[in-house]
Amino acid sequence: MLYQIPLIRNHSKATNPYNMSMKAFPKFVFMLLFVYSAVFSQQPTLPISETIVHDPVMIQQDGTYYLFCTGHGISMFSSKDLKQWKKERPVFETAPVWVKSIVPDFKNHVWAPDISYHNGTYYLYYSVSAFAKNTSAIGIATNKTLNPEDKNYKWTDHGILIQSIPNRDLWNAIDPNLILDQNNIAWLSFGSFWNGLKMVKLNPDLLSVAQPEEWFTIAKRERSFNLDDKEPGDAALEAPFIFRKNEYYYLFLSWDLCCRGEKSTYKIVVGRSKNVQGPYIDESGKPLNEGGGTIVLQGNNNWYGVGHNGTYTFNGKDYMVFHAYDASMKGTPKLKIKEIQWQDGWPKLEPMN
Fold first, then answer.
1. pLDDT > 70: what percent of the chain?
2. Catalytic residue among 55, 88, 114, 326
3. Residue of 88, 169, 175, 238 marked active site
4. Which domains does the chain have, with CATH numbers?
5. Going by C-beta distance under 8 Å and a sequence separation of 6 or more, which residues neighbour residue 91?
6. Where are the beta strands (DSSP E) in 195-316?
7. 0.85 exceeded by the pTM?
8. 3-state class of 77 per DSSP?
9. 157 classed as catalytic
10. Strand pairing of 84-88 and 75-79?
11. Is residue 17 over pLDDT 50?
């Protein structure tokens, strides 16, 4: 997830539409923060049609679904039926102490988490960043349970896993997703804009990068060559999510622009590979690391854009969880859950209605 606006006035690089400063932070995002606090202070449980989220991920524990998403301290929701959602307390009441060394003006607005369960522990990867810069880092927190009423409920933060630095890295350390391959080896995919989406091998503890380091570019789009390396650029892709089914790994990602309300153009694309590191190929045979991608879902007149998905199997059915920008509410992002059908080994979803 990379917050951007189409034009920045009174900026030293105003000719680049992809640059952005805190002064240019979108009014749309401020509106979202206001709506989040106003709605949930008045009504803790909401139908899915009124549940406002951005970058949702989900997991099930003991018959309860838990959803985590971008928000103050990482927003958290719970549901028994995927239809009614209760707002829980955030993961972090205060920002992890290490974050301000990376993002000095950080206000505990944490982006794009990823949740998974391994060896009796829940692993929550998350992103911190300066807006429209790759001054970013991926952190990780763990818990033995997701039930806030359980006496063992306590988030333990483990600090930085991966960091990106402007003018050093041509990638962005946000939007993490963990996948364990058929050999139970852990890989973290991540990225947004710049030179594409990356993958790195983790140690078995899932808390550190394996040595010697193994890195892969799993998806990219063409970036204009004349852009400054510290700018996000015009190769709009982000939010990788890898889902294993039968003999294939499916790489879902989001193309184009999020977070612009009525001007959002987000869409979900996919490629597949028999190897977790890729290359991932779309339905036409084009590699995703050469600009390929088969569109799975996109917006329409009722929903300006859809994206930043997670893909899961619950109770024998495959689901895609994502946010969509509601045209009837000036592009407010709503929670959406769609069942996936499979045709000739490719995911198919009903269009947005």
1. 88
2. 55
3. 238
4. 22-348 (2.115.10.20)
5. 68, 73, 74, 76, 110, 113, 124, 126, 141, 155
6. 197-201, 215-219, 237-245, 248-255, 267-273, 294-298, 303-314
7. yes
8. strand
9. no
10. antiparallel
11. no
